[in-house]
Amino acid sequence: MIPPQEIGPPKSSSQSPRSPSGAPFLSISVTDPVKLGNGVQAYISYRVITKTNLPEFQGPEKIVIRRYSDFVWLHDKLADKYKGIFIPPLPEKSAVEKFRFSAEFIEMRRQALDIFVNRIASHPELKQSEDLKTFLEEDEEAMERIRSFETGIFKKPADLLQMFKDVQTKVTDVVLGKEKPVEETDPEYEKLKHYIFGLEDHLTETQKQAVRLVKRHRELGQSLSEFGKAIKLLGACEGDSLGKVFAELGSKSELLSIKLQKEAHNLLMNFEEPLKDYVRCVQSIKDSFSHRANAFRLHCELTETTKLKEINLEKLNLMRSDKTREAEIEYRELKAESEEATRRFETIIKRMNEEIVRFQEQKTAEMGLAFHLFAKGQAKLANDIADAWRSVLTKIEAYSLSSGHD
User: Fold this and answer.
1) How far apart are the C-alpha atoms of 201 and 81, rounded to whole Å?
2) Packing angle, helices 68-81 and 140-150, rounded to 10
3) Measured between alpha carbons, how far is residue 201 from residues 194, 282, 292 in Å?
4) Is the pLDDT of residue 403 over 70?
5) CA separation for the pair 30, 28 (Å, rounded)
6) With bands split at pLDDT 50, 70 and 90, how would you rate the model's confidence at 315?
7) In this model, does residue 186 exceed pLDDT 80?
8) How many Cβ atoms from other residues are within 10 Å of residue 274's Cβ?
């Protein structure tokens, strides 16, 4: 899988972590998963180790303990503040209790969380986030207070007020039979959406087949193990010469079983999981599509409303109405809000244009590595299988000749 990312080359051993001559770097490791608690309250904690020479951090190394919900907090904070950026995805939670604390699942999640936080740390904008610094440096009690306050069952009053306004607007639109807001029709944007939706379909299908491949390796490995045991028992009932051949055949079967199970695990971690990760990455991009669509609609609605307010203000000026002053204040406030909405929309466009370039470069490198490891593993497994059966075949042929068989 993808190793922890570093910004720039690592410092040499002769440089102190705070040395101004050292190239700037930020390296993060998610390690040592430990199960805490019991029953439904049980969870996994991780050691998050940060090594850096960046001056905005507290020191050259910091170790904190984090749980999955802390990673969720960081993801949600970044998603809220950086509209248009493809926020790295988190691994999903397991809904099946018996798998939630299996060694394999815990390692897959640890690996995915390591990738998640290092993608943030290597991103030109996200790495500057105060929320990332909070996540990497606050002690466990402080992190728990922050997370509980901001992601509690009840949202903050301002959030609730906005939620009620949104619901009220939607209900009003339905009652009045308003048409849906205009949709963005930029050809390049449409081309991008077509590419992403197509990519999602192909990645999902490839990942589905990777799951079947892992399952097949495991089932074949299990069958070879059982066959090996059975053929050894059969050999024990035969004479010395044939018994030895059967024993060799059984041993090779059991050896190949181990190799198949090992390759199944490698396939899971280095092929299936990266594919699944990119399915999640595509979902993050689709989330940005939604943010862009919402920003575009607000930009259009406020622009149109501002024009109407301006026309109304001009009429009041001509009529020398006593409502002119109040209308002028409303117009200026709405115009400022409209300009801000336009800036937010333009920022999202700029970010998405930069993000898609980063995504394609990253995808090319990481998918290339995943497929390379896949092909390399399959080639080695095929050679091991061929060598094992070839060595057994030689002994079976020797026994057949000595016994007078063809």
Assistant:
1) 29
2) 50
3) 11, 10, 22
4) no
5) 7
6) confident
7) yes
8) 24
